[in-house]
Amino acid sequence: TTYRIASIPGDGIGVDVVAQAREVLDRAGSLHGFDFAWTDFDWSCERFLKTGAMMPADGLDQLRDHDAVFLGAIGFPGVPDHVSLWGLLIPIRRAFRQYVNLRPVRLLPGVVSPLAGRSADELEIVIVRENSEGEYSQIGGRHNSGQPDEFAVQQAVFTRVGVSRVIRYAFELARTRGGQLCSATKSNGIIHSMPFWDEVFASIAAEYPDVRSEQSHVDALAARMVLRPDTLDVIVGSNLFGDILSDISAAIVGGLGTAPAANLNPERDFPSMFEPVHGSAPDIAGKGIANPVAQILTGAMMLDHLGETAAAEAVSAAVDAVLASGVRTPDLGGNATTTSVGNAISEALK
Ligand code: NAI
Ligand code: MG
To answer: Which atom of ligand 1 is nearest to the CA of 81?
Structure first.
């Protein structure tokens, strides 16, 4: 089999970590009997500064007939973040109905984490983030610019279809895992959308008596994730809450450098997109020290999605072996480079 993959390295460290991940994926393919046909796209902030657009007008059409999109990170100083995000990532997520943003974390071997020394070495949390609506909305506006009575209005949109499908996905996932699901809410302060979210959650929960479900205010949940992460398994949250919780969950297992993610179109009528939780990290861009593990594990999620589960497990095992051996980038307390970690993972593949 040959998989057709659209490759968008993007900005900053995205370029370095995507290069490493592609090498690992190509080698996994050669060991497991498939290969990749990569199509390269230079869509980025650099392109925006040259042409005035993050991607061409027919960009979505160019991606459409690929088996998946593999993306590094988008955004760099010089282009406002809302311009880069809404010029590329959000249009792809929405046009291709990638309404699930799946963000699993687990404690990796040898990684120093605030949890070290606790009974959490088996810790795994999966965030299911709503990825198509909610607080990420263009409805609203700025008014009375520069005046003392200046104000901004930002509307959030929650539809029954949108809320139901992501919650249902989370229940199905919880059923295949520990049988436990927590919904992030804030229905004390957000009085229209969050009570609606809670009602939809409760009605779907009734269909899954085998899943232990609960709802928690997102602020309390954030604290619990730091203090007692072992009490959590699958968490479902809105676009904003899921985003914030996934950075916290990444932080408690060693940082953004190891946290993978997938933007999934569960119906498979459009390509899904695979990009790590982290961004373009301008503070370390060009230094050759970005951790490629998050992008490589994101590649493993792509393999899983393509049905190459043995190869996905092999990539994940190779990551574990290399981290356990002490080859780590500075964010994990080591002194290895992006390239040396990537090479070590390629070599460790079975
Ligand atoms: P960031 O995730 O790029 O960086 C946050 C911190 O984590 C930095 O100190 C960075 O050095 C560190 N870090 C992140 N990934 C790392 C890795 N692989 N190895 C080692 N250290 C790593 O988030 P930030 O600084 O808020 O955003 C930077 C740019 O990235 C912005 O333009 C933002 O809009 C964009 N961004 C893009 C995302 C995407 O494309 N999906 C997601 C998040 C941010
Ligand atoms: Mg984020």
So the answer is: 34
Say how far apart CA 38 and CA 164 lie, in whole Å.
35
Q: What ipTM describes this predicted complex?
A: 0.97
pLDDT in tens, 84-116: 999 999 999 999 999 999 999 988 887 766 665
Based on the residue annotation, tell me whether 219 is a catalytic residue of this protein.
Answer: yes
- Supply the pTM of this predicted model: 0.94
* CA-291 nearest atom, ligand 1: 19
Q: Ligand 1 centroid to 74 CA: how many Å?
A: 9
Q: Which atom of ligand 1 is nearest to the CA of 76?
A: 32
Tens digit of each residue's pLDDT (9 = 90 or more) over 10-44: 999 999 999 999 999 999 999 999 999 999 999 99
pLDDT of residue 111: 77
CATH 3.40.718.10 given to domain 114-252:
yes
Neighbours of ion ligand 2 (CB under 5 A): 243
Q: Which residues contact 106 (CB under 8 A, 6 or more apart)?
A: 123, 124, 125, 253
pLDDT tens profile 288-318? 999 999 999 999 999 999 999 999 999 999 9
Using CA atoms, how far residue 162 sits from 23, 130, 264, in Å, is 36, 8, 14
Please list the residue range(s) of the chain that carry CATH number 3.40.718.10: 1-98+262-350, 114-252
Catalytic, 149? Answer: no
Return the ligand number nearest the Cα of 276.
1
The residue whose CA is least distant from atom 31 of ligand 1 is 75
Full 3-state SS string of 249-270: HHHHCCCHHHCCCEEECCCCCC
| Cβ 251 under 6 angstroms from ligand 1 | no
Q: Tell which CATH classification among 3.40.630.30, 3.10.20.340, 3.40.718.10, 3.30.9.10 matches the domain 1-98+262-350.
A: 3.40.718.10
Query: From CA 309, how far away is CA 301, in angstroms rounded?
Result: 9
